[in-house]
Automatic annotation (TrEMBL):
Protein name: Transgelin
InterPro entries: Calponin-like, Calponin_repeat, CH_dom, CH_dom_sf, SM22_calponin
Gene Ontology terms describing biological process: actin filament organization
Keyword Cytoplasm: no
Species this chain originates from: Xyrichtys novacula
Taxonomic lineage: Eukaryota, Metazoa, Chordata, Craniata, Vertebrata
Record field: transmembrane: none
Length: 263
């Protein structure tokens, strides 16, 4: 096991939760598969997470495992040196991870080198090996060894082939499904510009109405306050009546415009 100090406090709590994800039963299944897949004189480790980590941490067994899934002469890892040097062992782990991803294991299922080397997340190591075994069973290319019930087959997409005539018919069908604009018009539709102009017109009517009201008030005071003969007063009263009528008409037009705008 890598030489690292103990964890304390929150780090220890996090590490304990990670370790709880480790599956002892899955460990035995993975050991059975690796021994059967690699063959040769691989010794089985004793049960337990620390022993499983120690069994894999130098990278040799992992490299042999990924090579066994390829035909002879096409192995992804050409040399697997036996070494006690830490950086060389970590390099072999890294080579295995690259080869596993090239084999088809998704990035999210790939563990980090320190997960195995330092034992930080052996559950992630199990997840990678399970994904690799499932891929090997699914490919069914004659290189998988062991019980096929150890892993689930991955779902594979079904690719259909269409002739050019079928593709043309499909394009016409899609066009009909999307509908047609034949006979369409913009009747009943109000564009932004039209609505904008209507708002300005309504605003102008309101302003005019206020101005008329101001005129009515002013001329009313003139009638009451100014001393003028009856003919002048009569003329002013006629103008006031006309202005009042005009203001009433403007109010009606404003209401009509508002009703029209609300439609």
């Amino acid at each position: 096991m890598a030489n690292r100090g103990p964890s304390y406090g929150l780090s220890r709590e996090v590490q304990e939760k990670i370790e709880q994800k480790y599956d002892p039963d899955l460990e035995q299944r993975l050991v059975d598969w690796i021994v059967a897949q690699c063959g040769g004189n691989i010794e089985r480790p004793q049960s337990g997470r620390p022993n499983f980590q120690k069994w894999l941490m130098d990278g040799t067994i992992l490299c042999r495992l990924i090579n066994s899934l390829y035909p002879r002469g096409k192995e992804p890892i050409k040399k697997i040196p036996e070494t006690q040097m830490a950086f060389k062992q970590m390099e072999k782990i890294s080579q295995f991870l690259q080869a596993a991803e090239a084999y088809g294991v998704t990035t999210t299922d790939i563990f980090q080198t320190v997960d195995l080397w330092e034992g930080k997340d052996m559950a992630a190591v199990q997840r990678t090996l399970m994904a690799l075994g499932s891929l090997a069973v699914t490919k069914d290319d004659g290189h998988y060894r062991g019980d096929r019930d150890w892993f689930h087959r991955k779902a594979q997409g079904y690719r259909r082939e269409f002739s050019e005539e079928q593709l043309r018919q499909g394009q016409s069908l899609i066009g009909l499904q999307m509908g047609s604009n034949r006979g369409a018009s913009q009747a009943g539709m109000t564009g932004y510009g039209v609505l904008h102009r209507r708002k300005h017109k309504i605003k102008a009517v309101f302003v005019d109405t206020l101005e008329y009201q101001g005129t009515l008030d002013t001329m009313g005071h003139l009638v009451e306050m100014a001393e003028m003969d009856s003919e002048v007063k009569k003329g002013i009263q006629v103008k006031l009546a006309l202005l009042d009528a005009q203001a009433l008409m403007d109010k009606k037009e404003t209401k009509a415009n508002l009703v029209e705008l609300a439609k």
